[in-house]
Amino acid sequence: MNVFAIRILMGDRAKYIGIVIGLTFAALLMTQQMSIFVGLMSRTFGFITDTSLPQIWVMDPKVQFIDDVKPMQDTELLRVRGVEGVEWAVPLYKGLLKARLSNGAFQNCIVVGLDDATLIGGPPEMVEGRLEDLRRAESVIVDEVGANGKLAKPPAVPGGKPQPLRVGDTLELNDHRAVVVGIARVSRTFQSQPVVYTTYSRATAFAPRERKLLSFILAQPAPGISADEAAERIRTRTGLAAYTAPEFKWLTVTYFLKYTGIPINFGISTLLGFIVGTVIAGQTFYNFTLDNIRQFGALKAMGATNLLLLRMILLQATVVGFVGYGLGVGAATLFGSTAGRSELAFLLLPQTLVVSALAVGVICTLSAVVSMWKVVFLEPAVVFK
After folding, report:
1. φ/ψ of residue 135, rounded to 5
2. Burial 7-43 (b: 16+ CB within 10 A, else e)
3. Among 12-21, 139-148, 184-193, which range has the highest average pLDDT?
4. pLDDT band at 5, cuts 50/70/90?
5. What does pTM read for this prediction?
6. Residues 14, 102: one domain?
7. Phi, psi of 165 (to 5 degrees)
8. Terminus of the chain with fewer CB atoms < 10 Å: N or C?
C-alpha cells in the first residue's frame, strides 16, 4: 500500500510539483531569513570574538553593548590589576576616527589601540605583515575588507578599479600620519566600517584629546580561579562592570534584540514564509486528495480501514516534506555561499536547519490533517455513483 500511495502522489505531476514548490519556497524563505538574522547578530559581537585571548572584559557600568564606549580614567587599570585573582590586565582603546584618504575623501574607521608591551587583543589572522610591526613608528594594521574597499586608493586611470591599500601606503587619522605595516582578516562589523589596529599610546594620540580615553580593560583570571569568580571580584572591589566574553556577547545581542526593530522585521519575513508555505501546500494537497477521492473510496469499499488510509496520506505528506525541505535548504545554502562574498550577513547554523525542518513538518502535518478529514468521513458508496 505504501508503493500505491507513492504512485498516487506522483501520478498527478502538476499537483505533486505544486506541493513541492510550496514547501521549497517555505523552507527557503525561513532558512534564509533566519540565517541572515543570525549572521547580522553575530556581527554585533564580532570584535569580541576576534579578541579571543582575554576571558574578562572590564568597562564602565553604564556600557550597554560593545560599541557603546564610555571611557574610563587610566587609573582604573591599576585598580583592576590589584584585584586578587587577576593574573594580568591590559588597556584597550576602541573609537571611531576619520581617516583622510589620498584623494582627499574622509572615511570613518574603527580604531583599536592595543597594549604597547604585549599587543594583546590584536587581529586573529594576518594576511600580510606581522603583528609585531606595530611597534614601528606611525604604524597601523588595516583589515582586509577595508583595505580592498572603503580605504582603497583611487583608480590609476579614470574609470578603472580602485587600488587596494597595501603595506607601505599611508593614511591620515585625525590629521596624524599612519603607515600601513600589515593587512589582517577580521570578522565583519555590524556597521561594516574599516578596522584599524595600532598601539594604545598611538591610538590615544590619534584620538581627540579627552580627560578619559581608556575604553576597556582586558583581564585574565589567575590559575585555579574561574573567569566568573574573577569577574565577580573585579565588580566587588572596583565598582566597574566585568563580564566574561560569552556574557559580553549576550549583553550586546540582548541590546540589539531589545532596542532595535531587527527581530520583528526578520520574524515577520519568517512567519510569512511559514504562512505562504502552509496555504500553498495545504490547498494543493487538499485538491490532490479531492481529485483522488474515488481511489480512496475504492480502497475503503474493498475493506481498507481509516487507519490504513491515514497512513497513506501521512506517507505522501512525509515524502513531499522531505523533498521540499531538501530543495529549500539546498537553495538557501547556495544563496549563502554566494552572499558570503558580499556585504550581506549570512550564517547558517545547525539549529536553523532543525527549526526549518520542524516548521516544514508542521506545514505537512496541517496539510495532511485537512486531507484526512475528507477521507475519514468518506462514504465508500461514492465510488459507485
Report:
1. -80, -5
2. ebbeebeebbebbbbbbbbbbbbbbbbbbbbbbbbbb
3. 139-148
4. low
5. 0.82
6. no
7. -70, 130
8. C
